[in-house]
Model the fold of this input.
Amino acid sequence: MHHRPAVEIKNLYYAYPDGTTALRGVNLTIEEGESVGIVGPNGAGKSTLLLHLNGILTGHGEVRIFNLPVEKKNLREIRRRVGLVFQDPDDQLFSPTVFDDVAFGPINMGLSQAEVAAAVSRALDEVGIAGMEKRSAYHLSYGQKKRASIATVLSMNPDLLVLDEPSSNLDPRARNEFSELLQGMKITKILVTHDLPFVFENCDRVVVMSGGKIAADGDAFSILSDETLLSKYGLELPYGFYPAVRDPSLKPHDRKMEN
Done:
């Protein structure tokens, strides 16, 4: 069964106005339904690449999202379909209440009041903070803020979820809960992060970026168990973590199919 790719990037170059080149010919295809971790040292171009997925930045080359070229006339549709979740929830949450934050996208999409309310409660339910509509984001824990920031994009029913450093600043328990939340979401996901165990838990495939290019691309297990490759790009697994514990190429639903 062949899906259309969720993301197609061909020969993408990008230089910032100050002349710093951040992307140097990136080629990347992500199929619908994949969970992909993008890792690499600081300055590798990971965040710059993310910002091309919904047209915040536009470089030279081709970027297509579900076959739509990322260009002005398609931005509204692309931004509905690509849910971009920033590293800091305070960049995403700025309204008086959680309801207002999560309703922002659906209101802009022109949904009716009843549809907006339904979209908000569905999104909050999906991220496990149902009933917090009237709360102010200011009074949420950091982990709840992270969930609320995902809800602000889920309320638009995106086809692709893009998360920048999703596990940063979470305590171990919130991090585990957040990881479970992501694993339960049946949606194409791209995670950009330094947290390699988090990538291993949540991604089938890992893309290593370095110097604005893709340096390696493969299944999560083979990339994260290749110590030579990781150390070459300044990536370190935490002490005592070794990805051989479970084979990520066998997801629970695949195991059923074998019997």
Remarks:
- The chain has a mean pLDDT of 90.
- The CA atoms of residues 38 and 192 lie 5 Å apart.
- The first strand starts at residue 5 and ends at 15.
- Residues 113-126 form the longest helix (14 residues).
